[in-house]
Amino acid sequence: MKILLDECVTKKLIPYLKENEIYTVTQKGWNGLKxxxxxxxxxxxxxxLLLTIDKNILYQQNIENYEIIxxxxxxxxxxxxxxxxxxxxxxxxxxxxERRNLYIIS
Length: 106
Hints:
This protein is an alpha/beta fold.
């Protein structure tokens, strides 16, 4: 699966998702893009999934309009010690993810 890590997600997460093709927003040169524009860029570049900790994305975008999966880790911090705790659940659910849906992992 081709996954884009949002700006708010530490790149230290990449080794935990090694079964996937992972890129960061910074690597793609998309820093500072608003969520709607970021989603359009990600879809245009063939991404399957946007991984974020931005809980506001649920209220800012009509997810059904975007041919991509959005996963939100419900964490209080972008620190890798917090985020890596979500990986087992993410891996467990990953096969069931469907485009045009947002999933919150807590």
